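Marked as duplicate of an earlier ticket. Keeping the data here for the record.
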Amino acid sequence: MSNGKIVIYFGGGTMAGVFSAGIIRKLQEMDIYDKIEAVYGGYCGSINAAYFLTKQSELGYSVFCEDLTHDFLYKARIFSAFLQRIYSGLIHRIPRGKMINVVNLRYLFDILKYKKRLDIDKLKKQPIPFYAKVFNLTKDKMEYLEVAKYNPFKVLKACVDVVPYVSDSEGIDGEEYVDGTILESIDLQYFLDKYPSHKIVIISNSSVRRQFRHYVKSFFESLAAISTYGFEAIEYFIKGEFRLRKDIAYARRTKNVLFIYPPKDNPTTLSTTDPKKLKITYKMGMKEAEKIRKLL
């Protein structure tokens, strides 16, 4: 039996996550915390969710539009990084410490810990259950870790260890974790099974208009990810794109699911670093958040 509360899932998307940064700003203004059953986050969505739950949503915008516009993404490294990973996976393994990373996670977490400090104590004490989507490399399966039960920074770090763009993994209780969203972007059935009587809000930061190029992208990502996942990476990534398309269609026709995603004229992609474009997408997120108000 539903108690009238909602479940919110914040998806990933690197710089496209500025869209849900706008959403959390509006939701904090709406003060809907007592209407939330649980919050979930994947990849950058987990960081936005953490700022929302600590009522620091104004920092989410500034991190994207002030800090991550430089020294975070190295787009020029993508080709060489992928070649290196394919070589490591197919021919001769290269130690992780010598891998080229496209994303600078050390810089990101310096921001979260010091410059735009995420209030970890408040995050652990706030009453709403908060789960992070990760992939357990040790057990070869997707998991949702309840953040308050672990070191939150370690869980958030695992969430953004997005293979193959970084070569890192995070050790938690003797097991190794990486980002889970690149393999299972939404996982809608999980939420429908766990919360059959609740309204579920799925927030996607990226385009829901899937094209053939997305399959091509997934295939090349899978080749570069073999050095981490083994040859199962090809199956993981290709199936992940199929599941995403299925979930998008399913979410749109399921009555108890509110599916929020950026408008067609959204100027921000996964790698956008132009502050003007990021600000436009942020404002789009604030506007789209009004749909949640109507749901309540």
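See parent ticket for discussion. Residues 232-253 form the longest helix (22 residues).
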